[in-house]
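User: Is it possible to get a 3D structure for a protein together with its bound compound? The compound here is MTE. I've pasted both below.
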Amino acid sequence: MDVGRYAPSARAVDWGLFAAVAVLLATGVATMFTGTPSTAWVIDLHAVAGVVLLPLVAVKLWRVRRRVAPDRLTGRRMLSLVLAVDATAALATGVWWIFGGTLDLGPWGLFHLHVGLGLLVPPLLLWHLRYRFHSPGNVTRHGRRDALRYAGLVTAGALLWRVQRPVNDAIDTAGADRRYTGSREEGSGDGNRFPVTSWVADDPDPVDAGQWRLSVTGRVGTARSYTLADVPGDASEEAILDCTSGWYSGHEWRGVAVGDLLDAAGTADAAAWVQFRSVTGYRWSLPLSEARDAVLATHVDGERLSHGHGFPLRLVAPGRRGFQWVKWVEEVRVTRRRELGEWLAIFVSGV
Ligand SMILES: Nc1nc2c(c(=O)[nH]1)N[C@H]1C(S)=C(S)[C@@H](COP(=O)(O)O)O[C@H]1N2
Ligand SMILES: [Mo]
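Assistant: Yes, that's possible. Here is the predicted structure of the complex:
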């Protein structure tokens, strides 16, 4: 078969592979922050880059096929082979997810596997490039032809991504109820019966409601402290919790509006951020104006929150991904600057 007639030149394929992986990494990480439909393009771009990567990997493998014969395998070629297998598996798990696949890996599933395999590709690729790097020198020799082929590839990728939705609907796969974030629906509107997801090792003992206090501190006029009975429960909010591990759940959350807590304490002029701190050390900040509209929920669909979902109080931050919805909140801290350590805290809290 003469791949060269249809495929971009060898150098252009190498650069295309590199660019596609860079886009996939950047957009993959950026999905962590896609909480509102205006950011749907991040996921679209991720998907299209994946569809483009598929034929590029196939062409690359076809061109190097003779170098990976068993008797010609050196250590470096083994590494390249591991990269090829990992990239193919990352693509396969992504496609499988889109068409409703599931996998039971104990606490993890197909989506986790996709993320894990995907995050391995860039380091493996960089390692591979240490040995196999060529200058882009003559990539321009077939410049015009290659540019046209890439334009075609990206267009085909976008079209394929466009038609997967009706295909999913037509054959009614579990991929049909995906949100634009890629997440699938679980237990909406049914009280506490939706998945419990904690980040890494956050697994506290149930909070003793008698001992527990909610304090409002930091750059406030008067610091406040509330017992559970004192927490006003007159705010309610319909919002979707959308976890970055691939599921979402919509509920009616009831509790106290953060804006009311802030009004009761009064905020100082320098106040710009509001940090929500969990009994476990897990914490996250929202800009002051956004925090005002958030709710600290005691109830979900009329039921008292269960321990797993953050009893007695959890943050409901509409438009933010699930990892920002802090559970077991015990402190609302008004600050001037955002604490950078909270990035670390979400990974290590509870360890
Ligand atoms: N304190 C604390 N809050 C947390 C987490 C955590 O590990 N610790 N996990 C977050 C993540 S990743 C998600 S998706 C949601 C899940 O909420 P749920 O367990 O009620 O479904 O809580 C968030 N809040
Ligand atoms: Mo999550």
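The pocket of molybdenum atom (ligand 2) is lined by residues 197, 243-245, 322-323 (CB under 6 Å). The radius of gyration is 24 Å.
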